[in-house]
Amino acid sequence: MAVFLLALSAACCLGLGFVLQQHAAQQAPRSDLLRWRLLLDLVRMPQWLLGTGFMVSGLILSALALNQGEVSLVEPLLATNLIFAMALARVLTRQTLGRSGWAGVLLLALGVTAFIVAGQPTGGGPPAGELRHWLVVGTVMGLVVLLVSLARRLPLFEEATLLALAAGLLYGLQDALTRTTTQRLDHDGLAAVLRSWQPYAVVVAGVVGLLLVQSAFEAAPLRMSLPALTAAQPLSGIACAVGFLGDRLRVTPGALAWQTAGLLAIVTGVIVIGRHPAMPGTVGDTLESIGASPEDGAEEKSEDEPEEPGGSAEDDRPGSTG
């Protein structure tokens, strides 16, 4: 029960932090995209600092959850951060949840439940050797580099999604390495931890992931980045946990079918919630901010959206004050 409470509390803090950070990142100069200067500009914004405080609290709570439970159990629970993000976004935009919002919440909840019940994640398997460890880490890092390289060639809306995917992969890897670090701390002590490479990799993954996700938040509305981030993190974390932590899932045909269905429901629910009108940066939010009703812009949205990819990278970014 403690693992569930810690993971859900972490998801709550992460969801609230992401929304506050995105509101602040949209005000940063567009020239800061994927530059370390972006973080220097953001630390001057009180709203971003508050969001970062929530995010750090979420990371601490998730580390405590990972210390007590398997990554393959904690990661699906962390995916519920989107529900908490939507709750805050609903307050900011004053949008009702509606059928699509409830459908997304239901899919996400059922997906998490199905995966945990069917997979029955357990630890205790033999940890992988150094070679397999590095192969898994190298594969994740290679995918991150590939996604960032592809993102730089796309318009801002699509770039935000790929940057968020890359950040999600890094955060999943960070969660798995965090569990490795806490396990070594429990068994071998602080001196052994400081001599290993995992804690330093955790810091590097966290800092690079922060730059990627803040760039994604700056580039486009939250609905273009947070669903991708939330979907990629548990998938990456579970893959890393099974790959080198010795986590085990049930592998009977029926269990595998339910696990697959659960993961698909999680990803679908994340996408449905992330694209709900209550999320900041949707057309309804934009029109409301200029005094028009969302209904007045429905037809205009369908006519304007196809033109975005053809425009310049600077014109594509909504909400920019740069």
Describe the main β-sheet briefly. Answer: none
**How many extended strands?**
0
Give the amount of beta strand, in percent: under 5%
Choose one word for the global shape.
globular
Rg computed from alpha carbons, rounded to a whole number of angstroms: 20 Å
Averaged pLDDT: 78
List the helices and strands in order. Answer: HHHHHHHHHHHHHHH
Uncertain runs are 282-322
Helix content: over 70%
Q: Quote the distance from N terminus to C terminus.
A: 47 Å
Number of helices: 15
Write the layout of secondary structure elements.
Elements: H1 2-25, H2 37-42, H3 46-68, H4 71-78, H5 81-93, H6 98-119, H7 130-151, H8 156-188, H9 190-195, H10 198-219, H11 226-245, H12 253-274, H13 283-289, H14 298-304, H15 313-316
Helix pairs in contact: 1-3, 1-4, 1-5, 1-10, 3-8, 4-6, 4-11, 6-12, 7-8, 7-11, 8-10, 8-11, 11-12
